[in-house]
Amino acid sequence: MISRASRMTDEGVNLPSPDDEATPFLVDLERIRFSPFYSRLSAVTQVIGATGGRSVVHNRLTHSLKVSAVAHPIAIEMRERLAHTAERLPDEYVCDSAVVRAAASAHDLGHPPFGHVGEQVLDQLAREWLGLADGYEGNAQTYRIVASLDVIHGSSRGLNLTAATRGAVAKYPWLPSLQLPGQQGAILPPGLRWINGELRVRKYSAYFLDAEDLRTARSAVHGVLPLQQSFESSVMDIADDIAYSVHDIEDFHRAGLLSEAAVAREFREWQTNWSDLRSLTDSELMSRRVPAGGALEVVRRKTVKDDPWIADSDAFWEAVRNVSRDLVEGLLTEGFDGSLGAERAVASFTRHWIRHLRQSVVLAPPDNPRIGLVTLDQLAWHEVHVLKFIHKHFVLDRPDIAMYQRGLSRVLVRAVKGLVAWAEDSHDRYRVPPRLRELVELATEGYLRLSRDKPEDIPEIDPREIRRLGLGRGVLDYVASFTDAQAIAVSEAIDGRPDRLWEIGHTL
Predict the structure, then answer these.
(1) Cα–Cα–Cα angle for 476, 478, 483, nearest 5°?
(2) Do residues 31 and 159 touch, judged by C-beta distance below 8 A?
(3) What is the C-alpha to C-alpha distance for residues 497 and 489, in angstroms, rounded to an integer?
(4) pTM (two decimals)
(5) Which of 192, 187, 197 minimizes the C-alpha distance to 173?
(6) What digits encode the pLDDT tens for the residues 278-325?
(7) Which of 43, 298, 438, 448 could staple 483 via S-S, CB 3.0–4.6 A?
(8) Would you state the pLDDT for residue 148?
(9) What is the largest CA-CA distance in the chain?
(10) 3-state DSSP helix/strand/coil percent for the chain, to nearest 5?
(11) What is the C-alpha to C-alpha distance for residues 71 and 231, in angstroms, rounded to an integer?
């Protein structure tokens, strides 16, 4: 969290109290929401893309708006609780709702085209083909946008947001080069994991180029563990969990992707044969011939392994029963046909679960590195895990969805490799789009600075590699800023197909 005394802009100007109407935090919020990077999210896939005959589904912009809407009342409630919890937290600390809304609005800015599949493809290209040790990560790209890539009048780079907002945007407040000497086996926050005794950094909030900016923002965060989110970041994170765990169910139901029979069978068989499923080994549960209910049992075991501080078999059972009652025996009993009755059923399901989960947010147990300063109570925590299970098992793991995602992967591979080849073509690189050229120059300048300054927590930059690294990061910054349609248009144009040539327009 950030104390009132330390809430300053980069220029060192003291900020007014959160009660003032025109705080710099509201300026932060406006800068984010007026950004073209924010507008772009309306044409970026959330989980599944909309087609002409399908009902309206969420995109990254509508998701961000709803995360902000969920986060706002939580922030107000947490601020009230802080005012009456002096024995736990000093009363000089606050949870500013404007900072929370700004972080919620910004949290998905770094998502590339095609949702999480795009993130995975760009990360693989970054590490294995472009030689970027810090890869590609949506959260780090978000931070790069607000700190370096976006522009406003009067700032040489970035949106010049307050340290409080930048700290709240940092959902995973560390670098990919994080080291924890002498702490093997220690409990880690989400995004970090021990594998064969080695620390694996799976999620992080800044690339090496933006490390100094993240350090500056984090220096204003007090009262948290070294790797823990700020208070406002914690509220944003939990609102994100609540929003997508419920709204994705909406989308899948509207799209006809959730089979009532398949979901009911999995839930019923787990409840009926729970004792038999518990006797199976992990390898038996992961086999292709796992019985119905086995996938849900895998989720239960994972919660126990990862979060023994809160995981509980009785709470998991109750969560399965509650989700089954409202989803399997409720919403899914009637297919979605676009009628007012079907819309009313979706609205009732969403309203109930959003309200229930929002009211289940509590102050977290102190000194727990697995979580931020707020969390869900035990039952709601398990319910969110069950809702997320439905997304993954019944939609994201479908072969037809996987096939489509593999096709989208090829779109991004063509775009990245084609743009790199163009920028390296000594005969034709003068025609490279101006914005791409500028992004490459910006990244190259950053690598020059790192090579010169040699920060201790960042791998040393070989001066001979600066140009190559700058080109790689610049191309990734460029491609990641596309909408889904722009990525397809650019990829096809580079591949010599004229079908969408004139759709590129201002993309370049």
Answers:
(1) 110
(2) yes
(3) 9
(4) 0.91
(5) 192
(6) 888 888 887 767 788 899 999 999 999 999 999 999 999 999 999 999
(7) 43
(8) 97
(9) 69
(10) 60, 5, 35
(11) 12
Of the candidates 194, 192, 200, 214, the one whose C-alpha atom is nearest the C-alpha of residue 140 is 214
Residue for token pair 């300063």: 373
CA 10, 15, 18: angle at the middle one, nearest 5? Answer: 130
Instruction: Find out whether 374 and 231 touch, Cβ atoms under 8 Å.
Output: yes
Q: How many CB atoms lie within 10 A of CB 244?
A: 21
Q: Write b or e for each residue in 52-74: b if 16 or more Cβ atoms lie within 10 A of its Cβ, otherwise e.
A: eeebebbbbbbbbbbbbebbbeb
Selecting from 1.20.58.100, 1.10.3210.10, 3.30.565.10, 3.90.1750.10, what CATH number does the domain 4-112+124-232 have?
A: 1.10.3210.10
Question: Vertex 361, ends 355 and 362: CA angle to 5°?
Answer: 150
Q: Is 376 helix (H, G, I), strand (E, B) or coil?
A: strand
For the segment 427-438, what is each residue's pLDDT rounded down to a tens digit?
999 999 999 999
Segment 64-74 mean pLDDT = 95
In the chain, where are the structural domains located?
4-112+124-232, 257-334+360-396, 401-507
Residue that the structure tokens 């890869």 belong to? 135
Contact in structure between 117 and 484 (CB atoms under 8 Å): no
Could you tell me which residues come within 8 angstroms of residue 397 by beta carbon, excluding any fewer than 6 positions away?
A: none
* Ramachandran quadrant class, 112 (left: phi over 0; alpha: psi -120 to 50; beta: rest): beta
Residue 169 to residue 103: CA distance in whole angstroms: 5
pLDDT in tens, 194-247: 988 889 999 999 999 999 999 999 998 887 888 999 999 999 999 999 999 998
The H helix count followed by the E strand count for the chain is 20, 4
- Helix axis angle, 231-254 to 378-391, nearest 10°: 40
In one-letter notation, the amino acid at residue 347 is A
For the chain, the distance separating the N- and C-terminal CA atoms, rounded to the nearest angstrom, is 40
Pick the closest to residue 37 from 161, 163, 123, 149 (CA basis).
149
